[in-house]
Amino acid sequence: MRNSSSYLAASAILMSCVVNIAAAAPPSAATLERGRYLMNGVVACANCHMARGPKGEYLMDKGLSGGMPFDDRMFKAYAPNITQDGETGIGRLTDAQLAKAIREGIRPDGSVIGPPMPIEFYRHISDDDLAAIIAVLKVEPAVRSAVPKSRFNFALPPAYGPPVMSVKAPSRADKVKYGEYLVAIGHCMECHTQRDQKGMLLMSSLGSGGRVFPGPWGESVSRNLTTHESGLKGWSDAQISKAVRAGVNRDGAPYKPPMAFQHYQNIDDADMAAITAYLRTLPPRPFGK
Ligand code: HEC
Ligand code: HEC
Asked: Which residues form the Cytochrome c domain (predicted)?
């Protein structure tokens, strides 16, 4: 994230980036392929926005029409319908409006999108990757399905930061930096990092895990991804890859949700290697600290 010298300068740059995104239509096959690769892989929007049946199973024919409830001490949120339906979905949003919703958490009416939509992390999505994701959303079929409104027992912030200017992904040649980018847009740290009383991420605990996720599966606790003994210190690259992509631990036992293993299995080898390279740079931190 960069500091904007003035709001006007920031919005001028934002406008130019908006124009770039809008000008990308109609999307090329390569753009759609990139968007699908991200969404079926590390970005995993469907892990929250996919319609689900009573046992949490995906309802494939209902696509990203949402409805999944998120119960928290501080809120009861529902994943909205993000299909092209004009009334119950996002069919009326322009590309620029969608970009602002996804990357900045601000809807066209100015209201702010609340948790657990991981806006803090989506602020890092590059212009190209964002355009690719939006291109995919636009070609998916419209599904009519009204979702209840979320309730938050606290005031949402007026914004998650200054307007996002143009974002460029780091070069793949820099494996660690590109891995950091993938971990950001995959919002891995949303679950693997502690938060303070105000709900802000505790950067001093980045990657140390210890967050509890109750659900139909009982309870799962996010693990320590740092280089500490209680983390990934003794793990081989192959074991880390197997945990993330196959969803099994070093003894071959399956992990519980809500980590998006069904999607992460599609992360390609180069991206998995970059993610692992980045995780290996996390300073050792005790579990959950
Ligand atoms: C961890 C769960 C989660 C993930 C992952 C997630 N979302 Fe969301 N999203 C939500 C929730 C919950 C809301 C609604 C929050 C609220 O009601 O304020 C939301 C809101 C939205 C909205 C606003 C829709 C509206 O009508 O207000 C859009 C657009 C959206 N998400 C798109 C995406 C896209 C695209 C991705 C992947 C790049 C994604 N989301 C990933 C949970 C998630
Ligand atoms: C929605 C929350 C969530 C997200 C997002 C998430 N994780 Fe996890 N992760 C968990 C939980 C919970 C566990 C433990 C599951 C269990 O114990 O059954 C876990 C386990 C792991 C493990 C196993 C480590 C060990 O010590 O056993 C690794 C590695 C891991 N996650 C890496 C990642 C990476 C890399 C990403 C991003 C690409 C990611 N996680 C995204 C919640 C999440």
From this structure: 30-141, 174-283
